[in-house]
Each structure stands twice: as C-alpha cells, then as structure tokens.
Amino acid sequence: MRRKRALPLAALLLCAPALGAMTPAAASPMSATSGTSGPLRILLTDDDGYDAPGIRTMSDRLTAAGYDVTIVAPLTNQSGAGTKLLSASTVTVKHPEPRVWAVDGTPGDSVSFGLSEVFAGRAPDLVVSGTNFGPNVAGLATHSGTVGGAIAALEQGVPAIAVSTGGLSAPEYRPTVNAMKPTCDFTVKLIERLRDRAKAGRLLPEGVGLNINHPVIGTDGTGTAEDSALTTQARQQILKADYTDNGDGTWKVNVNLVQQPVQRGSDVEALGQDKVSITPITPDWNTGPADFARAAALLTGLRP
Fold first, then answer.
1. Number of domains forming the structure of the chain
2. What CATH number does the domain containing 171 carry?
3. Is residue 248 part of a domain?
4. Looking at the domain assignment, is residue 269 inside a domain?
5. What CA–CA distance (Å, rounded) separates 180 from 171?
6. Which of 79, 220, 248, 252 has the least C-beta neighbours within 10 A?
7. Would you place residue 247 in the very low, low, confident or very high pLDDT band (cuts 50, 70, 90)?
8. C-alpha angle 38/43/46, rounded to 5°?
9. Model-level pTM?
10. CA–CA separation, 288 and 110 (whole Å)
11. Distances in Å between the alpha carbon of 60 and those of 66, 70, 180?
12. Does a structural domain hold residue 294?
C-alpha cells in the first residue's frame, strides 16, 4: 500500500471512530443532502458465491437503505481466488432472478462482466464486495477473492469496498452469519459517510478503495463492535500450511494459525481489539517512498 495516499482518505473519513456510534441507517431513500443525487447504483459481488449468506444479507441491508443494488457474483464459491481472471474464450453467465447475475468465474471475472455488460454505458457509483465469511486481514487479504473483486473495480476506475466478517480464530458458522448483520449495517453507515463527504464528487479518492473487517462480537455474534479504526494491512502471515507425504504422490495439508507480535495500527490489532478495521487499498503493488528508496539503493549500478 502506498502510504502517501492514506492522508486524503483520512481527511475524508474525519473522525472515523465516530462511525461506530452513529445511528443505524434508516430503511428509507437517500437524503437530499447526500453527495450524489438519487440512489447510489451499486454492483455487489463476493467470493463465496451469488447466493451466499453474506452477499444476500448485504443486498438486503443496502436495498433497505435505499440503494439501487445489482448482484454480479461468482456462480460457485471462489474463496482464495485473489485477483485471478479467467483466460478462457467463453464464460457461462446465468441470470437466475431479477437483478442477480451469476458468473462461472472469479470475483474479478464477475466485476469485469458486470462493468462491461450489466452496467454497460454507465458505470456504477460503487462496487461492494462481500460480506465475506471470515476475515481478510494481513496476508489473508493479499490472496482474498473478496479483496480481488474490489481490486478489479479499482483497476477500471470505479470506487470499491471489500467487506469481511470474522475474528482471528477459526470462524464458527452461526455466530459469523449473525455478525454479518451488524457488518452490513456498519457498511451502510460508512457508505453514507462517504456520500455526505463526496459533495457530488467521487465517493473515494482516485485509485483508493477500502478493505473493511468487522469482528464477531459475543458468543452468538449479535454484539456491537467496540469502535472503528483506520488501519494498515499487517505485514505478517496469518495461516501456514504444513504438508505430510502420504507416500502415494499425494500430500496431506494441515493449516495452522501463525502466532506473531501484533503490529501497532494494523488491521490485525484492530480486529483483536473488537474494532472494525478500515484499511485503504490500491489496485497495484507499489511500495511507499521509503521502501522504494531502499530497493533503489540495493540495485544501484546493476546492469544487464
């Protein structure tokens, strides 16, 4: 992430922690004071599939808040697909119900098809990817199909937000599904904040998106997060695979949680404190100026 881009967003989200204390958005049309006239047109995608609990809960919440929502999402579960795009010459697309398109591909493919065909001639105001079942922080975010869907939108100049629900332990089904409701309510509040600050302009700075991670609060997942925090993506591995040779050409895979010191100001720290993490993201892998300078020093004088 290029840190120099975080400052304009920090200004845009002035007093971001106050989001946690705001009154939930009412199920009514957008107010006349919002930055863009009329209901926002939102392309909604995910990596769990077009009919997964997270995307359906998000669709219900955004629609109830007065947004114009169209689902364009993978036909099947594409968790961990990252930013992958299919290279096949054809793609199967189903239209199982009004305002729902199911693409037999990755989240990136879904966003690509949605922007090219479903929203042909007029891009949506926003792409929302999620909410995902489980967190997408630190190294998980790098390989996340949920984040990949948002990146695909940012690459085409469309503002995008990735949203995930889960803590730092193995997600339990029912509490995580229950926590998707406060996750989506928070997302509605966040979008309304961006809309109010946009003043008829872009919802987010050019080339900047958001990666939202909402914790699971309470044993049943229905609790409210402690606060929200503007964070960076932790530079650490969350999961590590161990391999055991079965002796027949196959290997058994066990995935374990990696215990590491928590980086201050990171998405991992916020989630561990029962806060909603809001991490600015960009659609490229450029380093910040300091890291770029360090690499340049290492490579000075290198010739073919």
1. 1
2. 3.40.1210.10
3. no
4. yes
5. 12
6. 248
7. very high
8. 145
9. 0.87
10. 30
11. 10, 11, 11
12. yes
